[in-house]
Write a structure and sequence with these properties.
Shape of chain A: globular
Number of helices of chain B: 6
Radius of gyration of chain B: 19 Å
Subcellular location (chain A): Cytoplasm, Cytosol; Cytoplasmic vesicle, COPII-coated vesicle membrane; Endoplasmic reticulum membrane
Largest sheet of chain A: 9 strands, mixed
Helix content of chain A: 25-40%
Radius of gyration of chain A: 31 Å
Low-confidence stretches of chain A: 1-294
Mean pLDDT of chain A: 73
Number of domains of chain B: 1
Oligomer: heterodimer
Structural class of chain A: alpha+beta
Largest interface: A-B, 42 and 35 residues
CATH superfamily of one domain in chain A: von Willebrand factor, type A domain
Family (chain A): Belongs to the SEC23/SEC24 family. SEC24 subfamily.
Protein name (chain A): SEC24 homolog A, COPII coat complex component
Order of helices and strands of chain B: HHHHHH
Mean pLDDT of chain B: 84
GO molecular function (chain A): SNARE binding; zinc ion binding
Distance between the termini of chain B: 6 Å
Number of strands of chain A: 35
Structural class of chain B: mainly alpha
Membrane topology (chain A): Peripheral membrane protein
Chain lengths: ~1050, ~160
């Protein structure tokens, strides 16, 4: 670690002090590259001063070469040590002075940045002085704690700049550059970053803004010890490289590494089924050389012969066929994914392929590392407002060409300076151009009103039915436990409303000895009593809030009121929230029966089987209208439905859907009869309360000219054709969009998509998170098929099918799903395959397509049969729309593992933990055996099915029971036993859990458990009373395809 | 020169057709307004503007909904009149649109027809472009039929 040598020899402190004063007086702290350079050069001449002053330079904490382990512990205090130093960032100010160059003091100041550069030997000597030095004893400045790059100059710069003489001119530019690259290395550090920069600089107004920290994301250019961007070898000049790129076909990465299951897993017929039909040479045009690198992807598969296509490891998304250099910069597929990784050139080609074109996004995912940029200007295309990204091309030093609209833009002066390498004139190495996912701190022009405070309002149903379920206990307890963890700052506000046939407000005004309940019984015309005391500052009234949460569960135990006036309560809550916006969490346990928004039961159980007559559409538009009002006032409504009866989620769900909230559903919740649901609620609440949140957000998705986005899926309101209004955004929400090719893309090789999410963080900062994805354009059908991403396609189809079921009917949607497979496979057969072979030939990329579509048909949303309750179906549909792709795929097609014989073979090793990696099995009862135990990972639940004749070994050493009959009925935890078997399975399960932000509950299922039906329902390859088995489905498809 | 019932029908439909043309033009403008937010992108992201914009959208959608019934009933009135006047050719020209209107009105997916043109649905780009195309087609149709009615009116007045 190159320890910024803080302090120094001899006279340094004194001179620094002087500087300090000067700096604070001047107020402008921004040091900028050019200036520094000139100064430096001048300094070099004044070698004496230079050396002594060197330490001063260190205020610019430099990204540690190697992330010091100690840095992890750096805390607030640590960052404070920085403060005195940062005061020295006065160079800008000094510049205003008349000819300063001769002034040794100033010289010393500006020398700051220098150490980074290849130093003349004399300087090195100076730089080495140890931190032990003078004025910050013991407080070693942790580079990681405060990576602010106030980039001064760089070595190369010196060359460009005339010596001291040019100083004055350069000083003009000083103020332009105020970039600070704030990054924190480690998420665990987050708290310590809070505004650490501010304290030191309180007197310097402008500085404050720039010093703000990314306390939420453990951002950082890279948490890896060595900021990659700094490494000269890594710096390919991306921008420049574009023009020279061959058509994007130099991909060396195999498209799907997970492609083939180990042969041992294959059916006996497997090997002979390898129809290695190499495609006719005529199909491989320009891309021959590139494609031949991955024969796997070229393989045509006969699904009827090779039935075991499921890879034994989780399916990896295909890698776009791009030049390695570009691909390395491309957006992570977990965040941004396209159904076709090779974009067809024309709409005609897309129509021929019969595959849906669209994007799946998970824009607000919790990221371990996220570069955060604070800069006074955000560089965007002047015509289409695209943010500068790694896929733009730099025509020369001063101009860049937008990759979305092809407009040529100027590079702003400030952008010429690269804070990471501290080189002037290398705009293509700036972090904005090196990262496909980046977050900007929005300057003030992005907000017209001050960012809203975090406001949380909880609305509880306290009717008799609600009290019966006993949910209040759980919720209040969870709230109490997580009150301090609610994302927020000192401005956080909180409020509570309860309702039955009347609406109860709680005054939590500071100074009251106990919460005061106000009852409004006029539900026809709801008004808010004492609006100022109902939403209170959480910090100031914390005790009252805690009081209330403790007493709330007991307050209504004797209630006899069975009516529920949800509509009026929502109206009241909306009125209360509308001045600020925020998040409203509504807990409802029955069908609303009073006032506006009252609903009538519509479900007729004996009609469940007929797919036609079910009510998927809202019966009233009250909730939709209210949701739009909420959206306009930046209020998001999250609905927790805990109901045993039909509650018309189709109507109620609208309130969340259009206000960008989320829906949680706990069928038959009861605190005693259904402890598993209680645990689920607890875990989900904990995640819900503590996860990140973004307020008053909007998201815009842009794409290269020629493509157009036409339909959005997810929870939001589309405010103008490409702008999604998201009053709240949470890290567990996914979105999907459909696209079409409007103009031919023949004259372009690459297309890009950019999503920009502007939000207010819970700390009250306005931020913009930008993701950019770049994909190649292809001209032949074969290449389109090769690049198909089967998971994304299935996910998008599921979204489209939900829309179809609502607008037409469920059976229509099911037909459309099946037709999607048939159409695309027959298109492949007729246009790509040269010789017509018998069987069901599919491109390797789509080998799982029929399986996934079959799984969708058997998913709760789209299944037929009498066993799905309407609310559960609608909830499943909400989930399809609102879940990120990964979890959607897991719920549709869960992973099945055999876990009674886990071994360390092929295990992962993470942090000294050995995590066994059992192969994923097909979802067929044929894979189960009575003498084994199987774990099914369905995203939000884990199910461990224990066979009747399961080995005694497993029972005693993993489950900790003596025999099969002793396995408890509602077992949701595995005991931690001191056996290797137990350790392995627990390691495996916790590894699965760590991969997702929420906490999937584990159910241990015996043969006679009620949960067994759920487990078996997921066996999608098997035949059920109303659905085909996988093989039958394939035969059906084959029949249709070969027609 | 005879002032027949047919001639009266044509005269009345001429007037009403002018109204329909206005409706169609208004639809086109409304959809255009829905499609484009004239604010600069940065302003669009501003929560204050969001409220205004949303109110605008709701207002337009409300008006659109209110116009549905008048338009459809005026057009049905044409058809009934031409049926009574036994103007088969004119009726024949109008029947397809009449059926289309019936289909639009009764094929509403929602449980109540009130949800036609509801803001979240209309704001979807493909729905919007469909509506816009529909409005343009109707405009063309009404314009042509306007001149056709004019011709027919004069023809029936002059002939016989």
């Amino acid at each position: 670690m190159s320890q910024p040598g803080i302090p120094v020899s001899g006279g340094a402190p004194a001179s620094l002090q002087a500087q300090n004063g000067a700096a604070s007086a001047s107020g402008s702290l921004y040091t900028n590259g050019p200036v520094q350079n000139t100064l430096m050069s001048s300094q070099v001449s004044v070698s004496q001063g230079y050396n002594s002053q060197l330490p001063g330079s260190y205020p610019y904490l430099i990204p540690a070469k190697t992330l010091n382990p100690v840095s992890g512990e750096s805390n607030y205090g640590g960052s404070q040590t920085v403060s005195p130093l940062s005061n020295y960032q006065g160079p800008g100010q000094t510049l205003y002075r008349p000819p300063v160059a001769s002034n040794p003091v100033t010289a010393s100041l500006h020398s700051g940045p220098v150490p980074r550069m290849p130093l003349p030997t004399s300087q090195n000597a100076a730089a080495t002085p140890v931190p032990s030095g003078s004025f910050l004893p013991g407080a070693s400045v942790q580079p990681s704690s405060n990576w602010q790059y106030n980039y001064p100059s760089t070595g190369s710069q010196t060359n460009h700049c005339p010596r001291a003489s040019s100083q004055s001119t350069i000083s003009g530019t000083t103020n332009l550059t105020g970039h600070q690259y704030v990054s924190s290395g480690d998420p665990s550090l987050q708290n310590s970053f809070i505004k650490s920069g501010i304290t030191p600089n309180t007197n310097n107004g402008p500085m404050v803004v720039h010093n703000s920290y990314d306390e939420i994301e453990g951002g950082g250019f890279s948490a890896t010890p060595q900021p990659t961007n700094q490494n000269p070898t890594m710096n390919r000049s991306v921008g420049y490289s574009y023009p020279s790129l061959p058509p994007g076909y130099q991909n060396t990465a195999p498209p799907s590494t997970a492609g083939m299951p180990p042969s041992s897993l294959n059916y006996p017929s497997g090997p002979q089924g390898f129809n290695q039909t190499p495609l006719g040479a005529n199909h491989l045009t320009t891309s021959m050389s590139g494609l031949s690198l991955h024969p796997e992807g070229l393989r045509v598969t006969n699904l009827l012969q090779e039935r075991n296509m499921l890879p034994s490891t989780p399916l990896q998304p295909p890698v776009p066929n791009l030049h390695e250099d570009i691909q390395k910069l491309n957006c992570n597929p977990e965040l941004f994914r396209c159904t076709l990784t090779s974009i067809p050139q024309t709409q005609a080609l897309l129509n021929k392929a019969k595959l849906p074109l669209g994007l799946l996004l998970h824009p607000f995912k919790d990221l371990v590392q996220l570069p955060v940029v604070t800069s006074s200007t955000i560089v965007r295309c002047r015509s289409c407002r695209t943010y500068i990204n790694p896929f733009v091309s730099f025509l020369d030093q001063r101009r860049w060409k937008c990759n979305l609209c092809y407009r040529v833009n100027d590079v702003p002066e400030e952008f010429m300076y690269n804070p990471l390498t501290r080189v002037y004139g290398e705009p293509h190495r700036r972090p904005e151009v090196q990262n496909a996912t980046i977050e900007f701190m929005a300057p003030s022009e992005y907000m017209l009103r001050p960012p809203q405070p975090p406001v949380y309002l909880f609305v509880f149903d306290v009717s008799h039915n609600a009290v019966e379920t006993g949910y209040l206990n759980t919720v209040c307890q969870s709230l109490l436990d997580n009150l301090d963890l609610l994302p927020g700052n000192t401005r956080t506000k909180i409020g509570f409303i309860t309702f039955d046939s009347t609406i109860h407000f709680y005054s939590l005004q500071e100074g009251l000895s106990q919460p005061q309940m106000l009852i409004v019984s006029d539900i026809e015309d709801v008004f808010i009593p004492m609006p100022e005391n109902l939403l209170v500052n959480l910090n100031e009234s914390k005790e009252l809030v805690q009081d209330l949460l403790k007493t709330l569960p007991q307050m209504f135990t004797k209630t006899l009121e069975t009516q529920s006036a949800l509509g009026p309560a929502l109206q009241a809550a909306f009125k209360l929230m509308s001045p600020t916006g925020g998040r409203m969490s509504v807990f409802q346990t029955q069908l609303p029966t009073l006032g506006v928004g009252a609903l009538r039961p519509r479900e007729e159980p004996n009609q469940r089987s007929s797919a036609k007559e079910i009510h998927l559409t809202p019966s009233t538009d009250f909730y939709k209208k209210l949701a739009l009002d909420c959206s306009g006032q930046q209020v998001a409504v999250d609905l927790f439905l805990l109901s045993g009866q039909y509650s018309d989620l189709a109507s109620l769900g609208c309130i969340s859907r259009y206000s960008a909230g989320s829906v949680y559903y706990y069928p038959s919740y009861h605190h005693q009869q259904n402890p598993v649901q209680v645990q689920k609620l607890q875990k989900e609440l904990q995640r819900y309360l503590t996860r990140k949140i973004g307020f008053e957000a909007v998201m815009r998705i842009r794409c290269t000219k020629g493509l157009s986005i036409h339909t959005f899926h997810g929870n939001f309101f589309v405010r103008s054709t490409d702008l999604l209004s998201l009053p709240n955004v949470n890290p567990d929400a996914g979105y999907a969009v459909q696209m079409s090719v409007e103009e031919s893309l023949t004259d372009t090789q690459l297309v890009s998509f950019q999503s920009a999410l502007l939000y207010t963080s819970s700390k009250g900062e306005r931020r913009i998170r930008v993701h950019t994805l770049c994909l190649p354009v292809v001209s032949t059908l074969n290449e389109v098929f090769l690049g198909a991403d089967v998971q994304a396609i299935s996910g998008l189809l599921a979204n489209m099918a939900v829309d179809r079921s609502v607008s037409a009917s469920l059976s229509d949607a099911r037909d459309a799903l099946v037709n999607a497979v048939i159409d695309s496979l027959s298109a492949y057969r007729s246009s790509v395959l040269s010789n017509q072979q018998p069987g069901l030939m599919v491109p390797f990329s789509l080998r799982l397509f029929p399986l996934f579509v079959l799984a969708l048909l058997k998913q709760k949303s789209f299944q037929t049969g009498t066993n799905t309750r309407l609310d559960e179906r609608i909830f499943a549909m909400c989930q399809v729309k609102n879940q990120p792709l990964v979890y959607l795929m897991l719920t549709t097609h869960p992973s099945l593992y055999r876990v009674d014989n886990l071994s360390d073979e092929g295990a992962l090793n993470i942090n000294d933990r050995t995590i066994p990696q059992p192969p994923i099995l097909q979802l067929s009862v044929e894979k189960l055996s009575r003498d084994g135990a199987f774990l099914m990972d369905a995203g939000s639940v884990l199910m461990l099915w224990v066979g009747k004749n399961c080995g005694q070994n497993f029972l005693s050493r993993v489950l900790g029971v003596q025999n099969y009959a002793l396995i408890p009925q509602n077992m949701t935890d595995l005991p931690e036993l001191d056996t290797p078997e137990s350790a392995r399975i627990i390691a495996f399960i916790s590894w699965l859990r760590e991969q997702r932000p929420f906490f999937p509950i584990l159910y241990v299922i015996r043969d006679e458990s009620p949960m067994k039906a759920n487990f078996l329902q997921n066996m999608v390859e098997d035949r059920t009373e109303s659905a085909l088995s996988y093989y039958e489905f394939l035969l059906h498809i084959q029949q249709q395809v070969n027609k | 020169m005879a002032f027949t019932f047919a001639a009266f029908c044509y005269m009345l439909s001429l007037v009403l057709c002018a109204a329909l043309i206005f409706f169609a033009i208004w639809h086109i403008i409304a959809f255009d307004e829905l499609r484009t937010d004239f604010k600069s992108p940065i302003d669009q992201c501003n929560p204050v503007h969001a409220r205004e914009r949303l109110r605008n959208i709701e207002r337009i959608c409300l008006l659109l909904r209110k116009l549905v019934l008048p338009e459809y009933s005026i057009h049905s009135l044409f058809c009934i009149m031409f049926l009574c006047a036994q103007e088969w050719l004119t009726l024949g020209l109008n029947v397809p649109l009449l059926f289309y209107h019936f289909w639009r009105y009764f094929h509403c997916p929602a449980d109540s027809s009130e949800l036609a043109y509801d803001p979240p649905a209309v704001m979807n780009a493909d729905t919007l472009s469909y509506c816009q195309k529909e409005a343009w087609c109707k405009l063309a149709f009404y314009l042509l039929s306007f001149f056709y009615y004019l011709y027919c009116m004069i023809y029936t007045l002059v002939s016989s």
